[in-house]
Backbone:
């Protein structure tokens, strides 16, 4: 059997997608300005560097990682509620009403030297929705391409008997915000290649908004997708495009795991 030539995971495909969309993003934020603070060329170069850094697994600067840490903390709280267990990754404590210490109002996670607090109601809403789910399911599958065999892999946030779920935490939201993300294609592909017929995929989104009073308000949304054979073709074409980028920039890539050389 032909050996694996590339190891690829969904978030690296997302980073490549963001790079390809650089001009569209620039137009959205700076295109209407007579004197934009950043040129489209500068922004594209920034996106390029960010992609190379991600491929090389360069650690995110502490001050830039707060949003990612918040998502990790909320995901862990939800998983612990589903499994009715304590976390082995971070400290999670209950916070009670100051006037009634029997009434739990928030769950608080200490992660990466940051404190994240979420209302108990929204945590229970998510965990009850996932009743019967298996959290953090590792999946992988082989994708044949014209450039060789690719191993696709990653962790599914919540695997239900008939659907796959990914949790997103964001400070801004508009309909179908995550339609270009690749979890919704990669994970169903892997699951189906391993013999399970699951085509329903959901992004379950926690939107937080900071109020003038200094606390966050939360709201939940969902995006629903159905995996089809057309997605498999689209995935193959996009992965091949990404491989072309990798080979064109091989001299800049220091983490060789993506080339299956470690």
Residues:
């Amino acid at each position: 059997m032909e050996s694996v030539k590339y190891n690829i995971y969904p978030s690296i495909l997302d980073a490549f997608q963001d790079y390809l969309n650089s001009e569209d993003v620039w137009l959205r934020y700076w295109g209407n300005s007579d004197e934009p603070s950043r040129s489209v060329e500068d922004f594209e170069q920034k996106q390029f560097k960010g992609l190379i850094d991600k491929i090389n697994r360069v650690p995110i600067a502490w001050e830039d990682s707060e949003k990612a840490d918040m998502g990790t903390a909320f995901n862990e709280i939800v998983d612990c509620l589903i499994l009715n267990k304590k976390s082995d990754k971070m400290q999670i404590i209950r916070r009670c009403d100051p006037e009634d210490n029997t009434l739990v109002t928030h769950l608080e996670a200490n992660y990466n030297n940051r404190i994240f607090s979420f209302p108990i109601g929204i945590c229970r809403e998510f965990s009850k929705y996932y009743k019967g789910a298996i959290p953090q399911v590792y999946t992988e599958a082989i994708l044949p391409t014209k450039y060789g065999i690719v191993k696709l892999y990653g962790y599914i946030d919540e695997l239900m008997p008939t659907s796959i779920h990914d949790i997103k935490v964001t400070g801004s939201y508009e309909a179908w915000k995550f339609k270009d993300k690749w979890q919704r294609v990669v994970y169903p592909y892997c699951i189906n290649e391993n013999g399970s017929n699951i085509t329903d995929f959901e992004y379950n989104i926690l939107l937080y908004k900071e109020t003038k009073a200094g606390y966050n308000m939360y709201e939940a949304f969902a995006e629903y997708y159905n995996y089809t054979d057309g997605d498999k073709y689209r995935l193959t074409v996009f992965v091949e495009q990404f491989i072309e980028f990798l080979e064109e920039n091989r001299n800049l890539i220091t983490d060789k795991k993506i080339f299956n050389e470690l």
Remarks:
- The chain has a mean pLDDT of 93.
- Residues 229-248 form the longest helix (20 residues).
- The chain has seven helices and nine strands.
- The beta strands are 4-8, 91-97, 100-111, 114-119, 134-145, 148-159, 163-170, 200-210, 216-226.
